[in-house]
């Protein structure tokens, strides 16, 4: 920190102990410059907990997060792992088990409000259970919930109440999965913070976990959100996030395609149907994202001429900031019900028993995979 910022280098938050900084709201230890005249000095996260009983999410990169997570296995803790149902394979912490050891894990699957209202929720729960097992996760319970609609959180709070015993509660998750909403509900239900935090310093670590004291002497440990750069949402300009992250139930878009046809999803992604009988493909993505159909042999030319303009978002300016595209070829076997999943963008369900050869074009590094159909 510079003297010009009004903050002496190494000054720490009196709440959690993190080194304070004034440059970035998204990094640990942020304090607004105008708050430097207040006493005691509190990072924005601690200030919100103390004054509003609310926690805000900060982020750290993957290696820093995993180093932080490795400490949990040495403690007696209940771990709540919150993931985004819309981006399940992009937001799940697949290596979680080896870090938390024998501590029980509850999997909170958020954003159920985004799926169509006619969804078979027993099927979704079974799907989550199976995929979690495939990823090596051992979970005590799975809670389907919606932070936006306040659904499922009472059940989650009941599970926490019955399972935590004499344990602290660690809440972990990737960015933009709804972790701060869950933390705020836990604060409201389990901790009389207004009185307690005005008279005591609540402990934390230098990596910006915040330990929020509960009435029984234990704590909720709020960890930073982990950044997975394989998620499209971590790559785009903030102005384009609204086009990726849906806020209303998905309206599936069904396209009957012949081999040799292409779908552009704005200028975010391209889907080629290369080989197979005429069949339908169902797209589950933000309804505000324009889908453009064209012939495969015209796709390169169309993107070169209209990428960032007719094919948008992103705009030409923001498109230039993304990594160059990589082509992924995928074969769907006959008789399989599979999704072509694109982390942060959504998925395309292949609806034919005949099989298909497809290709997906995406910015380099974005996760794409075949998975059993969610719906």
Automatic annotation (TrEMBL):
InterPro entries on file: G_CP_dom (IPR030378), GTP-bd (IPR006073), GTP-bd_ribosome_bgen_YqeH (IPR019988), Mito_lipid_metab_GTPase (IPR050896), NOA1/YqeH-like_C (IPR048422), P-loop_NTPase (IPR027417)
Span of domain CP-type G: 66-229
CDD domains the record matches: YqeH
Superkingdom: Bacteria
Gene3D superfamilies cross-referenced by the UniProt entry: P-loop containing nucleotide triphosphate hydrolases
Protein name: Ribosome biogenesis GTPase YqeH
Organism from which the protein derives: Paenibacillus wenxiniae
Gene name tied to this protein: yqeH
